[in-house]
Amino acid sequence: MDIDNKKVALVHTASYEISALTESVQKLLSALGIQRDFFRGKKVLLKPNLVIAAEPDSAIITHPNLVIAAAQIIKDSGAKEVIIAESSLISADTMQAFKKSGLQKVADAIGIECVDLKKVALTDVKVGDAALLHSIMVPKLLDGYMLVNLPKLKTHIQTKLTCAVKNLKGILSDGTKRRVHFLGLDQAIVDFSLHVKPALNIVDAVIAMEGMGALNGTPVNMNLIFGGVDPYCVDTVAAELIGYKTGDVGYLKIASERGIAPPWIGEVTLTGEDIDGFKRDLEKPSGALPELSMVSFEDAGACSACIHTLTAFTNARKGELTRLGEILDKRGENVTIFLGPNVDKQTLKDVHKPVFFGKCTKAVSDSFTGECGFVPGCPPAMSSDLFEKLIPLYEIDEKKLKGSFFDRLLKKIKHGD
């Protein structure tokens, strides 16, 4: 079967109704020149984006109806076996993600297994031509399956864009995911993509996400699915759709310089709908970490789990953090919160009472000779855990802390419960 690897098809899709998605996926496959023989006799692994346990219409995850529509088409094409597999965010419960999305229930109804890749046997694979990530731990079963990638189109606070290529990170073990962030996210994404290669990518952009994605952004209707064989061609189109160029997105720029990705949209063969009808200048992430007066954050290679958790904490408790900042400002102090495994000890020399956030900072916290706070967890579980360290560390006068949140927190600190 002769398929143009540089071709990306766009199909207008107005809803998540199974019938509409089935028709759209069939149109997309036809536009790409993919026929039933492509799947016949194959064992096929569908890899959606189920980064956390989220509702289907949250715009955080690939909609389960798209996964089921693709699964049924592939099954009806004569595939030997079809499974749906994922490894959610570091420390997240993948099976809970399957359940909350509704995907587990509908997959069971059509006889398709949902597989938690955190719980399968792994194999250590050497990555030839890698710049940083020279080996990866991946599921052994990957070798026996055709990989069909079903990402969600979202902005991303670290990589600006998450779509086909980055969704493949969910194939990796949690340990390898941590190394991806430790070594440098954009380059490591390019490195693991040299080994983890999907046969097909179908993107859910019926409802995409803008702003502080991939977890804390805003849903936006784009009424589109699109896809192709080459994940880099797909992501080049994704960037163009939401208002980026290839050079704006770190991993695309690196890949294009290595000849892996097209340097611009003009080298992608577009088919189906006219791309200009779907282009949206989506709200871009303002940065990986929030900006607050008198409270600063230092990212030392933190993974998405810690960054999204800290962002969620600060969004939920922005008023309370601002209040602490105001109190400290009057005393001429400020808070610096460090996260990630690469904290440089030299930078800590002039930092007054640093706070270390997450398991990866435990070693540097233990070796710090001055006063400091450590918030445990991978990632930390509750916003109150952060405040529990800040208030006693900075000896905040409880009379200056008003409101039900602080009332509950102070009681917990006093009684240790």
Distance from first to last alpha carbon = 65 Å
Identify the CATH homologous superfamily of the largest domain. Answer: LarA, N-terminal domain
Topology order in helix (H) and strand (E) letters: EHEHEHHEEEEEEHHHEEHHEEHHEEHEHH
Look at the structure and give the CATH class of the largest domain.
Alpha Beta
Largest sheet, described in full? Answer: 10 strands, mixed
- The number of strands is 16
Q: Percentage of helical residues?
A: 25-40%
Number of helices: 14
Structural class: alpha/beta
Overall geometry comes to: elongated
Structural Rg: 23 Å
What ranges have pLDDT less than 50 throughout 5 or more consecutive residues? none
Mean pLDDT: 93
What does this structure look like?
By secondary structure, the protein is of the alpha/beta class. It has 2 domains: 7-277, LarA, N-terminal domain (Rossmann fold), CATH 3.40.50; 295-415, no CATH class. The protein has helices at 18-32, 64-76, 94-101, 103-109, 164-167, 174-183, 185-193, 231-242, 250-257, 304-316, 318-330, 362-367, 383-393, 404-415, and strands at 7-12, 43-48, 81-86, 113-116, 122-126, 135-139, 146-150, 152-156, 160-162, 200-210, 218-228, 269-272, 295-299, 335-339, 355-357, 373-375. Strands 1, 2, 3, 4, 7, 8, 9, 10, 11 and 12 form a 10-stranded mixed sheet that branches. Helix 1 (18-32) packs across helix 2 (64-76) and helix 7 (185-193) packs across helix 9 (250-257). The longest helix is centred in the first third of the chain and has 15 residues, at 18-32. It is elongated and about 70 Å long. The model has no long low-confidence stretch (mean pLDDT 93).
